[in-house]
Amino acid sequence: MVPIPAYLVLAMILFGIGAVGVLISRNMIVMVMSIELMLNAANLALIAFSRALNIMDGHVFVFLVLTVAAAEAAVGLAMIVTLYKNRDTINIDRFDRMKW
């Protein structure tokens, strides 16, 4: 059996990659994918603690987080498609709030 610190280190690495992706990237699709990566890192930590403590609460929270992540991905992708149709770009640096 894999020890819990290994799962937590992997979760920290995934969360760090996601955080760097959100902070560095200027592409909105990459930012949404990075947020999804951060949510999956949190899910991994929840499952690791749930299995270590032999309780099912972590599994229930993972299903809740997966539901929120699916809704966030659907709404985020719809917003990105709408912005692309209106602005012809998904680069955040090129957006100007005054031009609608």
Question: Architecture, according to CATH?
Answer: Orthogonal Bundle
Quantity of strands, as a count: 0
Distance between the termini: 56 Å
The succession of helices and strands, N to C, reads: HHH
Amount of beta strand: under 5%
Structure annotation, total helices = 3
Quaternary class: single chain
- Under CATH, the topology can be stated as Helix Hairpins
- How many domain regions? 1
User: Looking at the structure, what is the overall shape?
Assistant: elongated
Radius of gyration, taken over Cα atoms and rounded to an integer in Å: 17 Å
- pLDDT below 50 for ≥5 consecutive residues: which ranges? none
Biggest sheet descriptor = none
Please give a structural write-up.
- The structure is a single chain.
- The protein has one domain (4-94): Orthogonal Bundle (Helix Hairpins), CATH 1.10.287.3510.
- It is 78% helix and 0% strand.
- It contains three helices and no strands.
- α1 (4-24) runs antiparallel to α2 (28-53) and α2 (28-53) runs antiparallel to α3.
- The model has no long low-confidence stretch (mean pLDDT 89).
